[in-house]
Amino acid sequence: MGIIIKSAREIDIMRQAGRIVAIVLNELKSQVKPGVKTRVLDEIARRETEKLGAVPSFKGYHGYPASVCVSINDEIVHGIPGDRVMNEGDIVSIDFGVIYNDFQGDAAVTVGVGSITLEAEKLLETTEGSLIAGIRAARAGARLGDISSAIQDYAESRGYSVVREYTGHGIGRNMHEDPQIPNFGTPGQGPLLKKGMTLALEPMINIGDWRTRLEDDKWTVKTSDGSLSAHFEHTIAITDEGSEILTAL
Ligand code: MF3
Ligand code: CO
Fold first, then answer.
1. Is residue 165 part of a domain?
2. What total of structural domains would you count in the chain?
3. pLDDT tens per residue, the chain (249 residues)?
4. Is residue 2 part of a domain?
5. Is 131 inside a domain boundary?
6. 108 alpha carbon to ligand 2 midpoint, in Å?
């Protein structure tokens, strides 16, 4: 299929979709407190998205049952919100996407519940830092491997491991478009990046081993060794100057 180049008009719609994702995700972050059930985040996401005239993109995607993914501690991605309560000291990854005027936005953050350990704090900083390193490497004329290796080097040089079975992705009219964007790779390799490409970068970083296991619910992905994992994601557009984050406030 190849990587789809978006026009300036299409990028403008994706900017609006991304802004809605950022607004809702910001609201969800502020609701993360000890004693709150994860399903509350799902309810807020649905309500706020509707208010803003968009549609949550995850619900029904390959049968996924909710509007948001909530993944706690050793859960890496795709946790299903429900009756589980968030506790002081937990780290909570919230992943959320919308469709607005036929275009998609997708982003994720990991936040602490109340006060968290220094070890957990450093994991969050490193994972967000690796996303920013990837975004900095994203510009017209660079290659996809420059993004992947920037993310990998940032995390691994600090002693963390990079999840390998799940990747970032192109995004546009569909949540998942070409190319897949691994969070590890080789500089100078892979497809050439061009102005108008829109990409979702999403490092998933573990304190321990990079291996994963799928829970019995067939969605929740956990670290195989029970170590903590964090996830940050932005939707970006490649520009002449570098890249623009579409899911920032
Ligand atoms: N944000 C996730 C991704 O980038 C999508 C969650 S999968 C879903 O792949 F099934 F929940 F939609
Ligand atoms: Co994504």
1. yes
2. 1
3. 799 999 999 999 999 999 999 999 999 999 999 999 999 999 999 999 999 999 999 999 999 999 999 999 999 999 999 999 999 999 999 999 999 999 999 999 999 999 999 999 999 999 999 999 999 999 999 999 999 999 999 999 999 999 999 999 999 999 999 999 999 999 999 999 999 999 999 999 999 999 999 999 999 999 999 999 999 999 999 998 899 999 999
4. no
5. yes
6. 8
> What CATH number does the domain containing 170 carry?
3.90.230.10
Residue-range definition of the domain harbouring residue 50: 8-245
Q: Is 182 in the pocket of ligand 1 (CB under 6 A)?
A: no
**What's the 232 CA to ligand 2 centre distance in angstroms?**
10
Give the full edge-to-edge strand order of the sheet including 177-181: 177-181, 168-170, 198-201, 234-238, 243-245
Residue whose CA is at the smallest distance from ligand 1 atom 2: 95
Q: Is 64 in the pocket of ligand 1 (CB under 6 A)?
A: yes
- Assess if residue 1 is contained within a domain: no
* Site to substitute for ligand 1 among 64, 67, 166, 183, most atoms within 8 A of C-beta: 64
Cα 199 to middle of ligand 1, angstroms: 14
Q: Are 93 and 110 in contact (CB under 8 A)?
A: yes
Sequence-separated (6 or more) residues with CB below 8 Å from residue 213: 221, 222, 223, 224
Residues with CB under 5 A from ligand 2 (ion): 106, 200, 202
68 Cα–ligand 1 center, Å: 8
